[in-house]
């Protein structure tokens, strides 16, 4: 599953920027990055026929990990 990640206020950056600054911790996802969100969003919108054809990800990094985990979650 895709985790709900924390988004605490940064006192340090808020004071220096004179505004409300929050940090989104997408590094806490299983894959270590935000890439799974986009991959899962796209793959979940595929038709059944498209899912049966399979998916190819040309990446050796975070994107491929996001696609791979999303495919496993969606049974692709």
UniProtKB/TrEMBL annotation:
GO terms for biological process: isoleucine biosynthetic process; L-serine catabolic process; L-threonine catabolic process. The keyword Lyase applies. Residues 3-76 form the Tryptophan synthase beta chain-like PALP domain. Keywords: Lyase, Pyridoxal phosphate. Pfam families: PALP (PF00291). One of its GO terms (molecular function) is L-serine ammonia-lyase activity. InterPro entries: Ser/Thr_Dehydratase, Ser/Thr_deHydtase_PyrdxlP-BS, TrpB-like_PALP, TrpB-like_PALP_sf. Its cofactor is pyridoxal 5'-phosphate. This is Threonine dehydratase, nonfunctional.
